[in-house]
Amino acid sequence: MKFFADTADLDDIRELAATGLLDGVTTNPSLIAKSGRDFMEVTREICGITDGPVSAEVVALDHETMMKEAEVLRKIADNVCIKVPLTVDGLKTCKALTDDGTMVNVTLCFSANQALLAAKAGATFVSPFVGRHDDNGTDGMDLIADIRLIYDNYDFGTQILVASVRHVVHVLESARIGADVMTAPPKVIMALFKHVLTDKGIEGFLKDWETTGQSIL
Ligand code: E4P
């Protein structure tokens, strides 16, 4: 499963990239606003940190303007992935861009039927939002399982990108289901490394090592 960071914070992206486990980045207009940075500038910098896909989202609602925005965004770097909303115009834009060889992430997917449409439109990635489903009283992971089943039934190449990930259990369940990618806030990715028994084990080993009086270097 690929790991994308869901953030526009450059320090966090650099820290994750240094682990060697970062496969890409997703942003959205809210994350750009939170960064307080210029959209084009911060996207260019993110594209310089990772070679993986960097999702940059259009803000127009009509196909024609989405295409114009996509044209500007895809010039930023070769690894820009155009993010479009799951609407009629968004999917028209998705089809046009992917037919032309551009990566597209279809975002704001909340149903398996919507994911089916995104695959038929040739999406590179579809982003079902699990956390927002949970917030709304339905299990977001059921949606991921349904999409996995449907995509496998028809051998769709669209990658399931689990989005709106809120905690480490979402990551575990995504991997169990066989999602292709998950995007999570940096703090969730860093939490994956942690286990209290790992810390306790290191502490015990080091205490015993000290009694030997030896050193490796
Ligand atoms: C995905 O690409 C979105 O940026 C993101 O995962 C949304 O997450 P949120 O529901 O925590 O805002």
UniProtKB/TrEMBL annotation:
Stated family: Belongs to the transaldolase family. Type 3B subfamily.
Pathway(s) it belongs to: Carbohydrate degradation; pentose phosphate pathway; D-glyceraldehyde 3-phosphate and beta-D-fructose 6-phosphate from D-ribose 5-phosphate and D-xylulose 5-phosphate (non-oxidative stage): step 2/3
Active site per database record: 83
Organism listed in the record: Aurantiacibacter zhengii
Keyword tags: Cytoplasm, Pentose shunt, Schiff base, Transferase
Catalytic activity: D-sedoheptulose 7-phosphate + D-glyceraldehyde 3-phosphate = D-erythrose 4-phosphate + beta-D-fructose 6-phosphate
Name recorded for this polypeptide: Probable transaldolase
Enzyme class, UniProt record, top EC level: transferase
Gene: fsa
EC nos: 2.2.1.2
Any one of the GO CC terms: cytoplasm
Compartments it resides in: Cytoplasm
Matching Gene3D superfamilies: Aldolase class I
Protein purpose: Transaldolase is important for the balance of metabolites in the pentose-phosphate pathway.
GO biological-process terms attached to the record: carbohydrate metabolic process; ketone catabolic process; pentose-phosphate shunt
Alphabetical list of PROSITE patterns matching this protein: TRANSALDOLASE_1 (PS01054)
GO molecular function terms attached to this record: aldehyde-lyase activity; transaldolase activity
Signal peptide (from-to): none
Stored CDD domains: Transaldolase_FSA
